[in-house]
Amino acid sequence: MRIPYWIKGGYGGYRNRVERLRDYMSATGNRDRMGFHPDGVIGKWYDDKCLPVMEAYIEAHDGWVNDARRTSVDIIRLAEAWKELVPPYLVMVDVLKSLPGEIVSDEDLYAMAIPQRERKRDSPTRIAKDVPGYTIDRSQAHTIRFTYYDLATGKRRKADGQREVEVCYLILDEIRIVRGSELVSKLSSTSNPLVLPLSERDSGRHICFALRWVSARGEPGPLSEIVYMVIP
User: Do 43 and 94 have their domain in common?
Assistant: First the structure.
């Protein structure tokens, strides 16, 4: 049977947590506030299915823990009590953690020796709202070199939460107006500057391109304004 990572100390670890949950739930004010009324569905389940095995486990553990009087019968009894305890106890834990924080607070969970709810961390990864800033170097034949930067800071780096920059482009024999959806050729890179290599036969042809950020999850941001130029 799998033991949750947060329960330390084997049998003793369970005994301490079970006792704290039982004692906290024994206070009528706590039970009523958290919705475990004796005549309610959850309250009845707790009284009939969970509390008895918790009590039996505490009793079995306390009989086993006394080295002076421990027998093989005590060991077997504890192991059996543990098997009976774990499923309903973990269900109870899941029920308590699934209830809204206004009903079962983190303070309640702590008092019952139950780990706090997992919280989603605010991730810096997000779809970019801005486009990259960039400069262009066409001094080398058949090559366009982009040096990009973060428009928000003016620094030569990727924007926060972005993995790379992507150049979307299209090579034309004759100049014409191109829509962003037509920029089917793409080159992504984390390098700065980003080098777009072109073939010798493209020299003198037209190229149109736009840049955008790509987030750490691979989500593309908006395209920059489409620029047209002659390939060196």
Answer: yes
- The answer to whether the beta carbons of residues 192 and 162 sit under 8 Å apart is no
Phi, psi (5° rounding) for residue 88? -65, -30
Is the pTM higher than 0.70?
A: no
Largest CA distance in the chain: 96
Containing domain of residue 166, as a range? Answer: 133-230
- Could you tell me the pLDDT band of residue 16, with boundaries at 50, 70 and 90? confident
CB atoms within 10 A of CB 86: 18
Q: Which residue has the tokens 């799998």?
A: 2
Dihedral sign from CA coordinates of 31, 32, 35, 37: positive
Phi, psi of 58 (to 5 degrees): -60, -45
Tokens 């959850």 belong to which residue? Answer: 42
E strand segments, 116-192? 133-137, 143-149, 162-172, 185-189
For residues 227 and 169, give the distance between their C-alpha atoms in angstroms, rounded to a whole number. Answer: 9
pLDDT in tens, 161-187: 898 999 999 999 998 989 988 998 888
Same domain, 33 and 73: yes
139-160 pLDDT, tens digit each: 988 899 999 999 988 888 888 8
In a domain, 2, yes or no: no
Give me the mean pLDDT over the 112-122 stretch. Answer: 73
Domain count, the chain: 2
106 and 14, same domain (yes or no): yes
Looking at the domain assignment, is residue 4 inside a domain?
Answer: no
In degrees and rounded to multiples of 5, residue 166 shows phi and psi of -125, 130
